[in-house]
Amino acid sequence: MTDTAPAAAPETKRDTAGVLAPPPLIYLGFLALGLVLEFFVVRTQGLDMPATLRWTVVAAFVLAGLAFIAAAVLRFRRAGTPAPPWLPTTAFVAQGVYRFTRNPMYLGMTLIYCAVAVAANAPVVFWMLIPLAVTIHYGVVLREEHYMAGKFGAAYIDYANTVPRWL
Q1: Helix 23-36 × helix 129-136 angle, to 10°
Q2: Distance between CA 94 and CA 79 in Å, rounded?
Q3: Of the candidates 152, 164, 156, which has an alpha carbon nearest to the alpha carbon of residue 15?
Q4: Which of 12, 21, 43, 108 is the most buried (most CB within 10 A)?
């Protein structure tokens, strides 16, 4: 009798970035965890902001976040490629808001996440921004970048070397 490992199943190459999870769900998960920790575990004293300033910041973050997301989605539609990273990409977009940041949708989601933290007067939600950013970076952004470089080659690599990942 010989010890042999079973034959590995043939690897199928999927035409997606293979992100950890849908990014909006990742943001919502960290937001929910931060709110639960804030209101049921840690119970901080809040952000110590005057109400007028707080709601001005909330409005500015929400509007800026929605603007980044809308501008990015519009560019994807014009290019005829789906925005969700779990679907195959047919083109990479380097126009519009993508001339300034490679990740306007995640930047927009981050701004909206921060707006909710300010609106809820919940510092713990801000604390959760660090593990959220690490999760988005390694579980989504780097996977997307690897996928795009493999799919679009030098054109994407040149783009990635000239446009910042965030701002």
Answers
A1: 160
A2: 10
A3: 152
A4: 108
